[in-house]
Design goal:
Elements (H helix, E strand, L loop, with lengths): L2 H29 L4 E4 L7 E7 L25 E18 L5 H5 L1 H33 L5 E3 L8 H8 L9 E6 L1 H8 L7 E6 L2 E6 L2 E6 L5 E2 L5 E8 L3 E4 L5 E7 L6 E14 L2 E3 L1 H4 L5 H4 L5 E3 L9 E7 L3
Parallel strand pairs: 1-11, 4-16, 5-8
Antiparallel strand pairs: 2-3, 3-13, 5-10, 6-7, 7-8, 9-10, 10-16, 11-13, 12-13, 14-15
Length: 322
């Protein structure tokens, strides 16, 4: 395979991967009801800062027209800032021997489809797992949004309903839940029979449960190891998690000498942004280009919304061993 062949193959691989990711993003967003938004709009730099006005509902007051004159307390018209953070990822290197390249030359389309599909799946899974881990950390760091029944019971409909109740009169804004497969089947065991499949893609299943989409994925953050093991269910509002992917995928294929066997390798780099509704990435604590552990640390996500009802949603934590 000549160098020019590698360049052509690399370009086909890049284009096929970007197209696959874009197609799956569209299908996922439609099926998940927009609770988790995978966006093709990225941003420059380490962070994206978005300013918005804070809620002014607390300015409402009662007036006694017969009372003595007094000066009411002031409510400032203020802005809050939500920071999204850019995350870097990599894929490979994937290595093969030049003697094996003949199958690429004979069936290049199949090779492009195979590698691009696996690369697209890996990127999308990373985006979803990272967004979920960040959201679990942020919400569970707020006591008023957490219903932890793990000391006595598993995740149940009652427990989830009590978590929704933490949103009070805004509970109708919760439009989707996120849980792992074991929790889903535990709920199925509680006589749930009306789950309709809406979307399925490499370990991610979205079903319709009681009229609301539920994303079922074995994201690591949805199960906390310990005594007991804890299952976590996110119940989210629209735009709770926003993943910004500008498609800045960089792929490279090269052949190297110097070893007993000549090797050809493929490697890819990519980035995406993570933002949470009502929360801001703490630049001072979390820093730039964070690790998985930093993203999953609750204190690195600051609640910026004045009311918890203006944040991403609530979390139910149950005993995964029951």
């Amino acid at each position: 395979m000549a160098l020019t062949d590698f360049k052509v193959f690399n370009q086909y691989l890049y284009e096929a991967t970007i197209e696959t990711v874009a197609q799956e993003i569209d299908k996922f967003n439609a099926a998940s009801n927009g609770a988790i938004v995978l966006s093709a709009e990225g941003f420059d730099g380490d962070f994206m800062r978005e300013a918005m006005f804070s809620s002014l509902h607390t300015a409402q007051r009662r007036v006694d027209r017969y009372a003595a004159a007094s000066t009411p307390s002031e409510t400032p018209l203020a802005q809050i800032q939500e920071n999204s953070v850019k995350v870097a990822g990599g894929f490979g290197p994937i290595v093969w021997r030049p003697a094996d390249i003949a199958w690429i030359q004979e069936n290049e389309a199949q090779a492009v489809e195979l590698i691009s599909r696996n690369l697209a799946e890996a990127i999308m899974q990373d985006q979803l797992n990272t967004g979920i881990a960040s959201c679990v950390a942020a919400i569970s760091n707020v006591a008023g949004l957490t219903n932890d029944v793990s000391a006595t019971t598993a995740v149940t409909y009652v427990a989830m309903n009590n978590a929704h109740a933490l949103f009070g009169d805004r509970s109708a804004a919760i439009i989707a839940s996120i849980m792992n497969g074991a929790t889903y089947h535990n709920l199925v065991g509680q006589n749930l029979t009306n789950a309709t499949r809406l979307y399925e893609f490499q370990g991610v299943l979205i079903v319709d449960i009681l009229g609301k989409p539920t994303v079922i994925t074995d994201a690591p953050a949805l199960l906390e190891a310990g005594v007991p093991n804890k299952a976590k269910v996110l119940s989210l509002v629209a735009g709770a998690i926003v993943i910004s992917d500008a498609g800045d995928l960089i792929t490279n294929i090269e052949t190297n000498n110097g070893e007993n066997v000549i090797k050809t390798s493929l490697q890819a780099d990519y980035t995406f942004g993570v933002g949470l509704k009502g929360y801001s990435w703490d630049i001072g604590n979390g820093g730039a280009s964070p690790s998985d552990a930093e993203l999953a640390t609750g204190t690195n996500w600051d609640q910026e919304a004045t009311s918890v009802k203006d944040t991403s949603g609530v979390i139910t934590i149950g005993n995964a061993d029951l």
